[in-house]
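ESCALATION

Customer reports they have been waiting on this structure for their group meeting. Please prioritize. Original submission:
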Amino acid sequence: MTNPINYIDVESRPVKWLVDGLRNQTIIVDNSFQRRYVWVQKDRISLIETILLGYPIPEIYLWQNATDPDTGDTVYSVVDGQQRLTTVQSYINDEFKLLRSGLDDKKSDYVGLSFSGLSPEQKSIIWKYPFSIRFIKDTVQYSSIVDLFLRLNRTNTTLNPQELRNAEFHGKFIELSAEISENRFWESRKIFNKSDVRRMLDVQFVSTLLLFIRSGIEEETTQAALNRIYDQYNESYPEADSDRDVLLKTLNVVDQLIGNEEYVSQIVRKKTHFYTLFVYGYYLLQKKVASTVLDDAAKKLNVWYENYENDGKFGDKLKDELLTEYRVLSQEGVQKKANRQRRFEIIKDYVDL
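Update from on-call: job pushed to the front of the queue and completed.
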């Protein structure tokens, strides 16, 4: 695509055309571009109010796919604009109301109303509202569409690095990261909150664990390091099955280390401490320790994190020195490989005392 603008037509289409397309699947959300649905309630309400007030909305991008030779229907992929389209569709489906807290005009006559509660005039405004659409021709190759999406969003602060990776990479490494992020362990231990999941930060964090299994604790956990390993294992990832097995077995060890211990259960919800406990769990897995050893370690770790959280002391010089050092390493330069290595060593040394 030497000159992208030559392959894009700009036209206007009403909400009715877009919603019908979403319903009959002639307009589809392509998950290889679009992130998980991330808008919160206030964002959704604000968009509908913008439509009702007649203000413009940023354009959306649709990529023309195949045309059915019998019906003449053309299928379009949403390259950019998922949030806007799905918000309008969900409002028309009565899935949320225009709560006062999310509106600028808090005295308007549509306060608190779902779509079905609007006046006929207000419903008509929404159905007829014209979206500006950039239609990308079907002659444009998929790789060029990815380049277009990334260029549209790299300077957009609403997209984080993992969401951009979701558009750029579709190989084995991201597939495995996404698969493991859906393991029931994360929900049962409340490691990820709803925002983490919406913004794909769960997939990103799992990627750092796979990066550790691939390259060890010496490898950086920066965005650049993640980009490198995504690229390295995008086409071929022969170790995928082995890495999945090791990671899931390590999670089982971590689950035993957490057990029913109050303070360990709380601390692992902070990613820095979870990473440290994961590395320690991997170490114990390699040593093939017995379950009784894991139970004893869990009790010791609970005392450790109780003192950590409450600024407590052991009354033992060596343990207190280790705890003081661990506090510093957990608050400053947490991603530095030397700090990650030392945090692991401190936990190992403490449990072995």
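Sent to customer with the following note: Residues 71 and 268 are 55 Å apart (CA to CA).
Escalation resolved.
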